[in-house]
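Board notes, transcribed. Complex of a protein with magnesium ion.
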Amino acid sequence: MTTLIKDLPSHIGEEISIAGWMYNRRSSKKLHFLQLRDGSGTVQGVVVKSEANEETWSAAGEATMESSVRIGGEVRKDERSPTGVELAVTSVEILALAQEYPISKKEHGIDFLLDNRHLWLRSRKQCAVLRVRARLIKACRDFLDDAGFTLVDAPIFTPNACEGTTSLFETDYFGSKAYLTQSGQLYMEAAAMALGRVYCFGPTFRAEKSKTRRHLTEFWMIEPEVAFNDWKDNMDLQERFMRAIVGRVLEECAEDLKVLERDLAPLEAISSPFPRITYTDAVATLKEKGQEIEWGDDFGAEHETVLSEVHGKPVFVHHYPAKVKAFYMKPDPDNEELALCNDLLAPEGYGEIIGAGQRMDDLDMLLAKIEEHGLPIEPFQWFLDLRRYGTVPHSGFGMGIERAVAWVCGLKHVRECIPFPRTMYRNTP
Ligand code: 4AD
Ligand code: MG
């Protein structure tokens, strides 16, 4: 039976067998110190020449970095090791001897690492990021499931441009045009009229031609949509959601955040209310800070960075000018130039992690907006039906998983926050 490395502390004094990979070895004439990992943890195995049989001693010396091995031995208490145990090795079986491993302890450039992403994933930090990502996704889903939401999967092929026409990936769909989805939102609006509170979680696609640290061409988004919620209820929901998911990660990923050397203070700051400022006030703040911006401009990456450094915690910016936002936003009845929408900016310069808003629920106004945005009406007829048959105020939001992971892990670039990143310049490995 194979024992997982993480379970070794409960087997002290026992003879066990583990299976994994060698990630390092230090050797002297009398001793081999094997560093072993199996995905659940790491442990040091000690081979003593005077005690080991010849086969074990020579296999321990031959196993190269990243060779797969099966190791037998006795679990011993070791106060100096972080897990409190080490392995007194009695047998070493090399399952597959690895060729010279391309990734070493020396500094590698980011392009080299991304070219070798399939191998880079094995490193301690990358494993920590993958675990945080998995936990964060589970936290999102648990929060929504517990709050009475139903998971509804949105299609990937769609005839609808949800987030503007400039970032569409177009594909031939048996002779007609289809796009890879930019967002599941429109389908969630349909599902919310059936089930009330719904969300989708899946990959979304944008032909982003910009090379920024925040943009991928394929990213994962979680998108809740709620019938009868207005734009304020929507911000309340986002705040509860963020607090719950960051709280869960803090609770469950302490080890991983330590590996990532993450300063926890900014994550812990989410327990107090998030400031809510209008777009108009945000523009004034930016001007005070010497940024070049005029009322009516959309925020650029630099603007978001500056704004998100002001408060030390996530901040809502609401009431953007309708003309910088998508067609489906409901205008403020008191000032039609403004949309009942918000972005949530993460602190520490991370910028937008959530895009949100109340949806246009009036049939004629929605029709006019679709036309104004130069979108074809026909593919939106089904969406217009939602306004024809029992339309209600409703709102929702979308959080990009990679941006959330980048912030939580304290990583500068989203490319490390997804197992196999896709950007304008990369779709391999
Ligand atoms: O602000 P966005 O475009 O909003 C929507 O797609 C809405 N339909 C969501 C909704 O209301 N259901 O995107 C939402 C979030 C952003 O805040 C960001 O976190 C992420 O998706 N995002 C990206 N992440 C990585 N790479 C990109 N190219 C991204 N574009 C958006
Ligand atoms: Mg947005």
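Residues 117-417 form a domain with the BirA Bifunctional Protein; domain 2 fold (CATH 3.30.930.10). The longest strand covers residues 15-27.
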